[in-house]
Fold each of these.
Amino acid sequence: MTPPAPRPLSVVLAGGGTGGHIEPMLALADALRRRSDDGEPVRITCLGTARGMETRLVPARGYDLRLIPPVPLPRKPTLDLLRVPGRVRRAVSETRALLEELQADVVVGFGGYVALPAYLAARRGGSGRTAIPIVVHEQNALPGLANRVGARLAARVAVTVPGTPLHRGEHVGMPLRTAISTLDRAARRAEARAEFGLDADRPTLLVFGGSQGAASLNRALVGAADALTAAGIQVLHARGPKNTDVTVPPRPPGSAPYVIVDYLERMDLAYAAADLALCRSGAVTVAELSAVGLPAVFVPLPIGNGEQRRNALPVVEAGGGLLVEDAALTPAWIESSVVPLLTDPAALAGYARHAAAAGVPDADERLADIVVAVAR
């Protein structure tokens, strides 16, 4: 009589809300699915809320999404803070019932509204009251409240940025899509530049400010367009889909192209086309650039708790990029600092080597190793 097949490991991933939580969650899911395809059966379920980007992104990648109530935490003391305990109790109760239904072997949280109830529900366990082990992954150099709580309850705590102040954090890196983590920029350069209508052999600057663009980056680059063109530098500039007023006059015939797009669907090709990026320093952006060895000028978002600056510092301190404050990013600064770098192939190559040395392209597999070990 043939023995029954072993029950697949049931892995529950909690990382809804923003792309910064969802993308590493899906990269881990992909790594776990590859193991399942190789004969190590894993059942993957993602938790999210009805208000987050996960309602679109998770099903599009082929994963089961189950919705739980969100638990937003007010940033300042307000009357809304009084409603938080009731919201937490409801979310934890519903999440606990869901974990029991799924027979969860491990809960992996990435922070945000979804993670906190998942951590607390896993701690309480199922009907047998046995706690479900937790793995925490923190993307940013400054952890949020949910992951600070989760780290105290977790079996393992993984961080993206070395030195992240999180209880028992171990440096693993940022899980990335394989289209990025396995990118050979040199091998794809000709294809990538042709895709965007760029010349094959000019120094190339990639500019982007996140999915919606960044007004200060747009202003500075448009103001520096003539200086860049005069130096023979071509530009691929993602202005953001709402910023249709951001334009550059046509370049003179035979001069370096300045290509403006609303949004970059193929970031892998954009990275392959470029010699240098100028961008914000969100956690995923910093991790992707270092993983592919593309040096960058990081312009941290000038609001919040300073986490974008901290995200970029390890790469900058390793010699893989520059950092300029938002208020200091002017056309004159670009002309005096970016143009000389882009026209110095030896300096660019040095920055690229240091950027690659700071990257962790196999973070998805490292985190998958941790998750499977904890689940077992």
Amino acid sequence: MNAYSIYRISETIRIMIFVVLTMLFFNFYPITAIMIILLAFFNDVPIMAIAYDRTGLEKSPVRWNMEQVITVATSMGIVGVVGSFGMLLFAMDWLKLDVPHIQTYVFLKMAVAGHLVLFVARTKGYFWEQPWPAPIMIWSAVITKLAATLLAAYGFGLIAPISWPEIALIWGYSISSAFVTDVVKVQVYHHFKRRAAT
């Protein structure tokens, strides 16, 4: 439940603040309404598998620490906003893409990075350490990421298609963003641990 709460709060910050700030400062929608619906669907499928996840157990009863939950989630969300702006500015200023293709870049970045944030949020340590996620959680994320990737590649009349090298670039950027998010998360948890020890 703790991981789910952190994930949902950080995703809300990551998507909503980014979209609103982009509309205010750049005067266009970074993702379309259909993309928002697709993101919600692609994010909710792996979330349903979280009930089967393998997580570490605490040695004593756990109480909700809302300050910690909000701080961790907000930190992760802010890293996600910065990462999304990095992708937006890269597509706008470096690649000089038109708005529909910029939207596809942002959509795929949010779809891939969003699932990776789920794996980041599930533990207090680094996401590559044990206990590893349950297979159903991994496969649900892989299938929905693959669906988002195919949608970005072929468009299917819903979004502007982009090339496979561009998709590889977005995947690499999203994976790098997940590692940065994970480091920030671990540092926030360490801060709370040090504070509790004093």
